[in-house]
Records
---
Amino acid sequence: ILNVEQSPQSLHVQEGDSTNFTCSFPSSNFYALHWYRWETAKSPEALFVMTLNGDEKKKGRISATLNTKEGYSYLYIKGSQPEDSATYLCAREGDSSYKLIFGSGTRLLVRP
Amino acid sequence: DAMVIQNPRYQVTQFGKPVTLSCSQTLNHNVMYWYQQKSSQAPKLLFHYYDKDFNNEADTPDNFQSRRPNTSFCFLDIRSPGLGDAAMYLCATSRDRTGPNEKLFFGSGTQLSVL
């Protein structure tokens, strides 16, 4: 994998459903993996920054895992709510310490 | 409470007419970034400032310039916008260059249309 790839591109779920999506990235020269949530008409906000293989982080109903050896991260949302509707961006920090390489995002819509 | 502020929210310009987008921050962060995001694509870094030190990405077109007159403000100048420059432009800051505990703080973006 040369780029940061996110799947699925979009996702529609019903309120109360749990969901997850994937970020795949080059595993070589890995430094950190970021997750951001971007609600429409607002600023992207950082959810997690993870660095270690096997890292798991949690913020309320949202959690993320990291596998640096195989180059992927999962984001989980338990019991989705309409306010979770947003685009979720992941970004890899690698060779150049200042530079985040973003994926194109997963757009989540939670129906009431 | 807004910490990274971008103006305007929407900008319409004409083909070839210079346009400037602005970004300000109240966080006193050392690093400021400009990202370009075209529809449904990944945000792409154009350049960043580490304090006053300007760093251009190799594939950023010459048409794009930036100024950082002080810690708080950063401007993106597009000298001769083309139709392909229509995009969302995101400004972001970080306390230092990204590291294991650093994260980016974003503005809400300026959506640029080129007619």
---
Amino acid sequence: DAGVIQSPRHEVTEMGQEVTLRCKPISGHNSLFWYRQTMMRGLELLIYFNNNVPIDDSGMPEDRFSAKMPNASFSTLKIQPSEPRDSAVYFCASSPGSSYNSPLHFGNGTRLTVT
Amino acid sequence: KQEVTQIPAALSVPEGENLVLNCSFTDSAIYNLQWFRQDPGKGLTSLLLIQSSQREQTSGRLNASLDKSSGRSTLYIAASQPGDSATYLCAVATGANSKLTFGKGITLSVRP
């Protein structure tokens, strides 16, 4: 099992540019989560999908952020336009269950720097 | 709103010491609590998950306890090793489909 795969590992972009982060969850997992981690705020849930359907997107900070899960093996998080305050590490995680009753499996994250 | 606190933010101990990492939460009506480990530049690895009906969980040298009434959990690491050096985070779910609330973690350094 390759685990949760995220790409790219690092992204440096200029303010105003569009950024797309990608995630491949573990095969067979029903739930997928996007988190953001910063020193100031710690880990924050952005959005949670179950069976490819967004269940909770209350953590998505603004309309500049959007997430899709077109199929069970792929998800994207898009920021358009990006701003310096979006700089953070973005994690994707998957879980075999339909709720938080199962341990989460995290990818290694994408470190985003917006200048 | 659930808040999760982990104090201290950092801890340094000599190899071989038994140690306890603390986690406190404000809302005792939790669904479960998880402890994670995060190595530098990596994602989180789930260590232990304790359901609200359980008092503790064990895995190898790790033991996690849960006291809902006092809003506390502890992660006990026996005979610490340099390889245990990492950041340890606890996270609380207040419902089956509610989001996990994470603490900011405790960065542990085990000195050889």
